[in-house]
Amino acid sequence: MATKRQGRTGLFKGVSRSPRQRQASPTSRSLAIGVIYAWDMVSDTLSWGPGAAEALGLPSRDLPKTGQAFSHLVEPGCGLSRQDAIGTAEGSGRAYETRYALRFEPDRVVMVEDAGRWQPDVEGRPAFARGQLRLDAVSGARDLLPAVLKQRSELLCSIQNGINEALRISQTCTLIVGALDDDEAGTMAEIARKLRPMMRRHDLFTVLGPHRFALNLTCCPAADAPSATKRLIGLMKDHPAAASLHLGAACAPDHTFKATKLLRFAEQALASGLERGEASKLYDARPKAPSPAAEQAPFDWIAALNSRSLILACQPMVEAHSRAPALMQARASLSSPEGGPIPLGPVPRLKEANLALLVDGRMLELAADHLKDHPGARLALPVSAKTLQDPEWLPMLAAHLGARPGIESRLVIEVPEAALAECRKILGRLHAMKALGIGLALTGFGAGYVSPGQLRMLPVDLLKIDGVFIQPLKRSTDDRLTVRTLVDRAQHLGIATAAEWVDDEVTARLLAGWGVDYLQGALFGEPEAVLQSSTLHQMLKEARG
């Protein structure tokens, strides 16, 4: 018997589908859905989805909170980092995919697949990224690691043993990293021989690379680190590469108790010394003051609101099988000189006011005017979690709907799944919004913020599967299983499904075959600017002088 679903707003008419063989619901462990993240590159804030700490094997307090902190976990020379992958991403979809190694402990390294999509700022520079980090647990086995990772693991374990020995006898351990010019380095064995006079029983000399070395001095206080680097330079004065020698040093426990951080700090000191032309440099643990440019927001939202320069940029959502337009998703944008939209990323938080409410309120006004002027149009409008939590949102929504009778059945408010985890009052407000006659869509479906039991209680008409699961469908069997499970769950509850980030025909056909009802992505059209009648009137007035 075919199942039938009826949308209560008339937007999602009942659609009959033949039931397919249902699979046993896998556990979250067997699904291995990966870890979802969001990275605000302007503020460098890194946010994680549910279960990230457990998946990465870290305490919650140790989860990297910034992009810079996360970059410190990335092993050098073992794949393109996320930031580099974003910088080299091509195409209008702004998708990126890369693979690299993360080191959590001296002897714990895993390979990860990192895939997502970035949004630009008004200047076209990467400003926000959202993606999925999938750990390859098998690759973490020591026997399967590349040789360079094995060597670095052995080095870090030796450094950690040196730190532990220094702490045992109440001493300080100093790690010195040296670099020489490529054509003058000579043999590392010769360098090790020259440095032997300054080494004690538990000290360690090791090769970091073709032209780099590390010297771990077990009993060397931080106050003596500058003297140790000077002595090292003196021992190397007769070496052909002495003129090109640069050193960086860090101390434990003064700077850290962990070998991974100690090596990173020493390498950072070396990089700083190379940049400044200094022969030796001790790591400076003092936080750097932010530059004035970094403190300034790249886009003045308040000015854009006051000048009423924000516009709607609409991207089509189509029916999966017929490809007929179903509705348009509207987002805040600016109008470029060429007439196209300049998309704007997430709204920053301000202490003085709920900026998200002001922006979403303006977008609601524009959407309501558009629906009034175009009786055949249907719009989906995303609303932030901060807006939903604000007590002024519901009266604002009711006022705009009341001023334009008849548009409510053609308006869908998109609610992020993460909002349901941030505020328990959201459920009641969703029911209140539903009572106004609008449609409700839950975006980011599958991220893990909502359990199947909670999903039953939500008055939603549409579940939009998170694009981080859609982008890698062609190559990832895990994501295929995830998406099919999400579609099964929605069909069981009688709720329509949509998929975003659909950029190619192969993915579109897969999703349609699995029972996804609506598709959105570059395959069906990029966002286009929608000018209001008042805006057009103003432009004509200015053109006439």
TrEMBL record:
Region (Disordered), start-end ranges: 1-26
Boundaries of every EAL domain copy: 294-541
Highest taxon in the source lineage: Bacteria
Range of residues in the leader sequence: none
UniProt-recorded Gene Ontology molecular function terms: cyclic-guanylate-specific phosphodiesterase activity
Gene3D superfamilies from the UniProt entry: 3.30.70.270, EAL domain
Name assigned to this protein: EAL domain-containing protein
Organism: Microvirga tunisiensis
